[in-house]
Amino acid sequence: MSAETSVVLPRAFGRYALFDFIGKGGMAEIYLARQKTELGPARRCVVKQIRPELAKDSVFSDMLVHEAKLAARLNHANVVQVFDLGREGDRLFIAMEYIEGFDLNDLLRRCSRAKVPLPFELGVHVLCEALKGLDYAHRRADDAGRTLGIVHRDVSPSNLLVSFEGEVKVCDFGIARANDAIADLAGGSAAHELGEAIKGKAGYMSPEHARGEAIDARADVFAAGIMLWELAAGRRMYRTGEGRDSLIEQARRADIPPLERRGLPAEEKLQQIVAKALARDREARYPSAAAMQRDLGDYAISAKMMTSPLRLGEWLKATFGEDILARRRARERASAALELGAPVVFHEVTPPPQVASSRPPPVASVAGPPTAPTSKQVRKRSAISVVLGAVLVVVVLVTAIAVAALR
After folding, report:
1. Which residue(s) pair with 349 in the sheet?
2. What gap in Å lies between CA 60 and CA 46, rounded to an integer?
């Protein structure tokens, strides 16, 4: 892979107009798009274009389509909605809801760089909301009342999205199962990128998942328990480095480090919740995401953690609002250029191995041809035209009055 790649946009993709490049991973290229509709405004969404070499493989395609169809059945405030699934030419794609904000992994990384800790009560709120979405998915049944048996399999900070409106949504249901098939199908950089991503995700695997055993909803509960441990401890639970076992080996053993006291409210109750969520024996674990969410919610109330989506959104805007505004302006310029038909060139230096499905895209540079006016120029020309038109009307009226007076 080259150190720098360029994506020329906008371009049509079926009924979608791709106008912003988000990123790429081992499985797909990800774009921000507008869905064309016959009536009303176009809907903004995320389009994942599956890599051609994977889309051509019938085993992988069938698995991805099956999982995406299950994900499309999910309709909940705490789950990213899948809008569409199909093929356009030789490209298999998934279209889903776009969330204006950050994934939790990106948010924590920004907090670390800015030396601004995420308030613990907000972290607890994020997990409680995510557990609501997970419980809904785990319980989702078909029209005959049979449980669909949906398990996320990859509950981790990069798959929890937090918006500037204070929304919390779980994304990429079913993608993990499709990822399992890629290692045998993809070659070259795709296999390497996916392999590196899976190594990182091993830090949130339940022991039964890491051992390759059959899993159920309690594997997702275990992953939520790891995230709660990390929010309380302020660091990763499993560590890597010289002299340490691989993440996958640590996950198989599930040797949970003791959670040190840091002066958090009602720490004894918090430690009980963490211990139950991270029980090595799944029979001793919380039986459902709802059971963990109930205890965590009661803990937040007893600890007087007064939070809400409004408070979360306000904190995000106050802490990182300026950064995202630049990205928003870039997207608006891209949208205007799309409407004017001007090409937009997006430059990404050293793309990351994997990007969350609804992560805010990198800042783009708009480079149209010399003859193509910018949106600012169009607005300026329109204003000038209006003024000149008004002046012309006044002149005509004055002339008409003067002529009438002479008569």
Report:
1. 4
2. 21
Quote the CA–CA distance of 289 and 137 in Å, as a whole number.
Answer: 10
Percentage of residues in the chain having pLDDT higher than 90: 49
The pLDDT of residue 20: 83
Position 78, amino acid: N
In this structure, the dihedral spanned by the alpha carbons of residues 189, 194, 200 and 202, taken in order and rounded to 10 degrees, is -140
pTM for the predicted model, two decimal places: 0.77
Residue type at 6 in one-letter notation: S
Q: What is the mean pLDDT of residues 314-336?
A: 74
Give phi and psi for 403, each to the nearest 5.
Answer: -65, -45
Candidates 154, 172, 220, 245; catalytic one: 154
* 154 in active site: yes
* Cα(254)–Cα(238) distance, integer angstroms: 9
